[in-house]
Amino acid sequence: MERQELKRLLRSIKDNKYAVPEGINPYRLCLELMDYIGDIDGELRDDLLWSVLAAWIMEDVLTPEEAHDIFVIALDEKHVLNGLGEINDTVFCRTFSVEAVACIIYKHRKFLSDSDILRAFNTVLKFYNEDRDVRGYVEGKRWAHGAAHGADALMELAQCEVIGYEGLKEILASIHKKININYYGYINNEDERMISAVKAVLERDIIPKEEIEEWIRSFGNIEKKGIVPDYLFTEHNVTLFLKSLYFRLVDNTKYEQIAKVVKEVLKKTSRFGEE
């Protein structure tokens, strides 16, 4: 379908509360949407395509089997791994494909097989560890938001029983790596989405608290080299993450000790922390 025709169709679907138009096969349309999921037209990709695809997944317009087909496509080399490591327009395909994976795991976790979940885990982790394009909102093209979308997928994966101790540790390590970058400062609530993934790990009650505390303390190992842009990006990302994590934990008595450790590390990492 030609782009403008597709936009008109999707706009009509959205305006009609996502009802399936007469004569339209929703599964076939969603397969076609996967060819456009990385389109640089922000209105098409973000406002229309993603809205329709997510609604049809969540509202059972697609059967579990049909959603599984979308899941498999989203995880392939042409989607979530497309252009991995590059900083260019391929980012939109990766980030919206990984968000589709997150959405399908959320909706159909019980339907997906262990092998499906493990494949998603390995692919999403590869994406999150190796993708360097972490831009949030891209002027003229709207959201990329890979750090946030990837964290959404990690949050869903962390809740899957087949992901055990080692897998949960890998999720924490991946988030640590994504925060400790020195070439971009997160400004679009990426920290909150990452913390949702961290909380999903904590709520599994598999990793001992001592190891969680050790992971948190590892954020205090920033090498302070003075006021230079790359150092400030890292400092900003780490302190923002720790502040947000503290307030997400402090009122939960279960995580009282962990919150204390977060506060200790925050004092150490913040340029203006208390002595």
Structure summary:
This protein is mostly helical. It has helices spanning 3-15, 26-36, 42-58, 64-74, 91-108, 114-130, 146-158, 165-179, 190-202, 209-217, 229-249, 256-269; strands at residues 137-138, 142-143.
Succession of helices and strands: HHHHHHEEHHHHHH
Strand content: under 5%
| First-last Cα distance | 62 Å
| Sheet/helix structural class | mainly alpha
Give a quick account of the main beta sheet: strands, pairing sense, barrel closure.
Answer: 2 strands, antiparallel
Dominant shape: globular
Summarize the structure in words.
- The mean pLDDT is 96.
- The longest helix is centred in the C-terminal third of the chain and has 21 residues, at 229-249.
- The protein is globular.
- It has helices spanning 3-15, 26-36, 42-58, 64-74, 91-108, 114-130, 146-158, 165-179, 190-202, 209-217, 229-249, 256-269; strands spanning 137-138, 142-143.
- By secondary structure, the chain is mostly helical.
- The protein has a two-stranded antiparallel ribbon.
- It has two domains: 3-207, no CATH class; 221-275.
- It starts with a helix and ends in a 6-residue tail after the last helix.
